[in-house]
Give the backbone structure.
Amino acid sequence: MPQTLTDAPLDQLFRQARTYNAFSGEVSDDTLRQLYDLLKWGPTTSNSCPARFVFVKSAEAKARLGPALDEGNYRKTMAAPATVIVAYDLAFYEKLPVLFPHTDARSWFDTKPEADLTTIALRNGSLQGAYLILAARALGLDCGPMSGFDNAQVDAAFFAGTSLRSNFLVNLGHGDPGSIFARSPRLGFDEVCRIE
Amino acid sequence: MPQTLTDAPLDQLFRQARTYNAFSGEVSDDTLRQLYDLLKWGPTTSNSCPARFVFVKSAEAKARLGPALDEGNYRKTMAAPATVIVAYDLAFYEKLPVLFPHTDARSWFDTKPEADLTTIALRNGSLQGAYLILAARALGLDCGPMSGFDNAQVDAAFFAGTSLRSNFLVNLGHGDPGSIFARSPRLGFDEVCRIE
């Protein structure tokens, strides 16, 4: 039976992890593959795994991303070793014959209206985005997730003519402790939870 | 600088963790508080923390939840030590004076149309749902996340007259290894990722 992890990993994953505004170091292609090989195991509806990931590292790709960013996110993103576009595929059901092979799971989704598919892909693609954040921290990386950007502009620059849609962005690297302020508060258990 | 975690926590969180269909044991109220005290640190847009959690443990509350469940999720949920209703608050911005105190962040959201608020709350509430799943695993618990239920029926039974909406459910306990099948495949890096 699994036990509670020790304080060191709990601190690294949750308690001491912060959203950084400046990063240094390199994020190798090998590290990105290790990152995917962890996050891919996280659970999704019918194992649908709708998230798709673009790892933006080159100056050319950064230049395509830049104009879509809110002003406050521009400089830090251009300077980050890597920026992940966490996206989802609205046609995720096309992969279900591989992902859920023991029955015709494709037919559960392929006639749904786009609004329903968007809800399912946003829910599960966001779960996978959180798996990416925690997997990155587990690999010793720091993260800077952002939703301050123009999704339609990113979709036009990276996903034109496809069923992929951007969800949010995550800067990756080694966080500069000088780039963060005191930690913002969280709500108490009794404000957001009930036991019934 | 943080290092890569050792194999044991990576296995517990990602590689060996499974979605169980039967659970044993107890999940104490104290454990639920420990769970929230980890997951609450995960990042969200403007620290908005829109997720709300109902931990369904009593026979009375289980009986209210039951009729909303798809048939395939009924028996295992009724038998689970605890079932979390992962919800989000569409009026999450009301808490921003506490959560993001250094500027008027409430005004960034409080005039947005409900469709936009739903997207933001679903994205960030799902991130927090994934933090809950991984925090539960970090505490030695197993999870059974589900979206096979009638959201409107759960909302009527648990959130009537409020701005809370159900997102997905998670059974919690100690997973019975006899309740799972061989692991389903995942897509390869090159099918879902690109490095640009």
